[in-house]
Amino acid sequence: MKTQILCLLITILGLNCYSQISFEKGYYIDNTNQKVNCLIKNVDWKNNPTKFEYKLSENSEPKKATIKSIKEFGINNISKYVRSTVNIDRSSENINKLSTDKNPIFKEEQLFLKVLVDGKATLYQYADSNLKRYFYNKDNSDIEQLIFKSYKTADNNVAKNNRFKQQLFIDLNCANFKSRKIENLEYKKNSLVRFFTDYSNCHNYDITKFEPKEKRDWFNLTLRPRINSSSLSMQDPNSENIDFENKIGVGFGLETEFILPFNKNKWAIGIEPTYQSYKSEKTTSSSNFSGGVLIANVDYSSIEVPLSLRHYFFLNNNSKIFINASYVLDLFSKSSIELTRSDGSSVNSLEINSRNNLALGIGYKHNDRYSVEIRYQTNREIIGNYLYWNSEYKTLSLIFGYSLF
C-alpha cells in the first residue's frame, strides 16, 4: 500500500502544468524599447524572478524571456518588474551571522525590482529567500537602496542602522509630515507603502499600487471525520510474534490550515489535532507460558497532531487535487496492552508510550468546502519504553472534510 500511495503522489506531480498558475494579460519591454502585449505566466513569485514565461496568444507555444533581454515586464494591474543595475547590501539579519560593521556592504547587481508604489516617488522591493531590501527613486532619478542593517556592537548587543529614515526625510519631504511620521517608520512593506502613498498624495500626484487582484483565503478551519484501517504486530522477548487483526475504526480531527502568501495559494501548512483509537484481542499458542496459551488485549487511544506541508494542483476554479506530507506527533495516550494466560492470570501489562511517525496523503477538494483524502501512516512504535519488545502500528485513513471557513 505504501508503494501504491507513493506512485499516486508521483503521478499527481505530473499534473502541475494544469494548476491555477495561468497565463494572464501583460506586457514586456525589450532592450530595443519595444513594448509587446502578451500573456505572462503568473506564478506569484515569492522571490524576485530572473526570467519568466509568456505567450503571444492563447494558442501559441510558451516562450521564455530573461533579465538579459527584458527591461521591464508586468501583469496588468497586478505586478510590475523593472530591470535595474543597483548597489545592494546582502548583509544577513540572522542574529548569529551579524557583522560588527554598521555600514552596508554594497555589491553591484542587475536585478528585476518589483514595483510596489508608482507615483511622484517609486518604491521597489527585492526578495530572495529571507532577504528583503527596498529601493526607491524620485522623478526618474537613479534607483537607490533604502539602507537598513542590523549589527553587533562592541559589547555584543544588537543595534540597527536606520539610515533609510534619514534618506526619506531628506529626499521625500512634505510640509504636512510631522517628525514622528519618519520616526515611526519600519523597514517593512506595509509601513513603506503607506509612506510613499502619503508622499504622492501630499503633492497631489496620482499613484499606482500593484497588488494581486484576487482576495486571498489565508486561513481555513476544517472538520475532518475519518475511517481508519489499523493493524498492530508485536514481538516479545522470546521472539514470538503477536499479530492483531486489522480493525476498522473511526476518528475525528479539526484542522487549521494556513495558506502561504506566494505561488498563487498552492502551498499550505496544517495543524490537525485528531482523536484515534484501536481495540483488538489475539489468542496465540505459546510454549513459553504455562497453559500454552497467551491472550493479548490492546486498548489504544490517543490524540495525534499531524504537522503537514500541503501542495495544491488546481484543475479549474472549483476543483483541486492536493498532496501532503506530515510529521505526526502522538500525544496524551493512557493506554495499555494486557497479556494474560488462559486461566485469566496476568502475564504482563505493557503501558503504551508511542513514538512519532510520518504520513503521506493525497486528496481532492471541491469549492474550497468539501474534501476527501487518503492518508497512509508509516510504522509507529507504540511500546518504545520496553527494551526487549518491538511493535509496528500502521494506519490507512479515508478522511472527509468540511471547511467551516
From TrEMBL:
Superkingdom per UniProt: Bacteria
InterPro entries tied to this protein: OMP/PagP_B-barrel
Protein name: tRNA modification GTPase
Lineage start: Bacteria, Pseudomonadati, Bacteroidota, Flavobacteriia, Flavobacteriales
